[in-house]
Amino acid sequence: MRVIVVGAGLAGLTCAKVLKGRGAEVAVFEASDGVGGRVRTDEREGFLLDRGFQVYFTSYPVSKRHLDHGALDFRAFDPGAVVHRGSERSVLSDPVRDPKALVPTLLSEDATFADKLRTVGLGARTLPGSATSAGRENGGADVSILEYLRSSGLSERYIDSFFRPFYGGITLNRALTTSSRVLRFTFRMLATGRTVVPALGMGEISNQLASHLAESDVHLNTPVETLLREDGRVRGVATSGREHEADAVVVATDAPTAGDLTGDETPKESVGEVCLYYETSGLDDGRKILLNADDAPFVNNASEMSNVSEKYAPEGRHLLYAVTLAGLDLSDEELLRRGVEDISRWYPDAEFRPLGLRRIPYGQFAQPPGIHEGLPDNRTETLGLFLAGEYTEDSSINGSMLSGEKAALEVLG
Ligand SMILES: Cc1cc2nc3c(=O)[nH]c(=O)nc-3n(C[C@H](O)[C@H](O)[C@H](O)COP(=O)(O)OP(=O)(O)OC[C@H]3O[C@@H](n4cnc5c(N)ncnc54)[C@H](O)[C@@H]3O)c2cc1C
Fold it and tell me: Does the beta carbon of 15 lie inside 6 Å of ligand 1?
């Protein structure tokens, strides 16, 4: 059986890996110059720049079926966060993951004692779940993250100072209007495993998946322009004037491109970010994520990545990622200037040298409450045509890999 996979993101790569492992002949067509889609790492002056601030949860149930965790040489963040508000700073532990840090945390003004107990309660509500993704399988009533937190009794101050920037960073939506299914699933991931990056950058996840394919299976810089249709079925694809025949085609692009190529209904809305990269003189805040609890922040969250993995920077040097959820329309100079302005308030003695930035207008498909139930299936109504991508499950590494796996199994029947 010959299968064409359109797109070498995590969904397409996982799909191709599963198909190949079961004996199918696979050809992957990728529009860009590399594999990984949204999960790639670039190197500049010896610094490792992931395409946006991304992390991996070692508890992800599906991705661990396809990845060799040991070979990725994971480096872990510390649980909890350092919360900045203006020039004030407080350390919040994660009471579920790091109970020993609960006592010093009680001194923090950002969370009351009752909040902490309720966070433990929130963990207890989410931990018994067994869904393998945040989406359809993760049943139960679906409201916004904000409503869910309020109904759990957490104070507005705690929500604003921790959950807004923390979940704003995970969902790229600080308004917390994303589905509470995403909160419930990721809270369980946070509580039951480690939050990590591969020592050599997030792109290693994609590279490892691609290593299951032969180089000749993957055609880079080869955008698929149209699907070839005949007698009501899809029989292949066309790339810049050339036609390629197959028994099945899996469209594994982002949702809007999949909608354009197939004519099927796919989610249209998205959320994005700009990731700013700075060399710093060292911030001494260890491996915790840094959160901005200001009412009108520019930087939402930041991390000194070279503390998490020393390989992210040349020896003895320091690399900071800072994420803004606003300002996609600002000039590069303005983005980098405003980033330093925010972070210098937190670390007035540190020095910052801009290394660059990455604009990611299409970061994740938007996931308002209720969206997961109506997402497209992997099998379409057109014979020979299948869909893979985060948008059939949930926006995450785990969700996109689950989608790729399911699409492959549908193709194989
Ligand atoms: C900034 C950011 C932060 C995130 N944070 C996290 C996180 O911390 N943890 C987590 O689990 N997830 C996170 N995610 C989500 C996760 O990265 C995505 O859900 C996942 O990578 C999507 O994979 P995909 O294969 O569905 O799509 P994509 O990665 O978009 O892959 C689609 C591929 O199709 C290619 N393509 C498009 N059109 C064509 C065409 N016509 N012909 C051929 N190829 C084409 C594209 O070039 C691309 O390579 C984050 C995403 C972003 C962007």
Answer: no
Delineate the domains of the chain, giving CATH numbers in brackets: 2-39+202-269+368-412 (3.50.50.60), 50-200+270-365 (3.90.660.50)
| 38 CA to centre of ligand 1 in angstroms | 4
**Distances in whole angstroms, Cα of residue 339 to Cα of each of 171, 278, 323, 336, 346:** 20, 9, 8, 5, 11
- What confidence score (pLDDT) does residue 187 get? 86
Helix/strand/coil for 111: coil
Phi and psi for 128 in degrees, rounded to 5?
-70, -10
For the CA of 239, the closest atom of ligand 1 is: 42
For a mutational test of ligand 1's pocket, the pick from 397, 398, 405, i.e. the residue with the most ligand atoms closer than 8 A to its C-beta, is 397
Q: Which two tokens stand for residue 187?
A: 């809270």
Tokens (6 digits) for 207: 């590279």
What is d(CA 307, CA 95) in angstroms, rounded to the nearest whole number? 22
Encoded tokens for 304: 């000194």
Q: Give the pLDDT band (50/70/90) at residue 92.
A: confident
Q: Which residue is it, tokens 């006592």?
A: 103
pLDDT recorded at residue 99: 47
**pLDDT for residue 340 is more than 60:** yes
Residue for token pair 């705690």: 158
Q: Atom 49 (ligand 1): residue with closest C-alpha?
A: 37
pLDDT, average across residues 343-361 = 96
Taking only the tens place, the pLDDT of each residue in 366-377 is 999 999 999 999
Nearest protein Cα to ligand 1, atom 12? 396
Q: How many residues does the chain have?
A: 413
**Ligand 1 centroid vs 341 CA: distance in angstroms?**
30
- Ligand 1 test: best mutation among 253, 260, 325, most atoms within 8 Å of CB? 253
How far apart CA 413 and CA 24 sit, in angstroms, is: 12
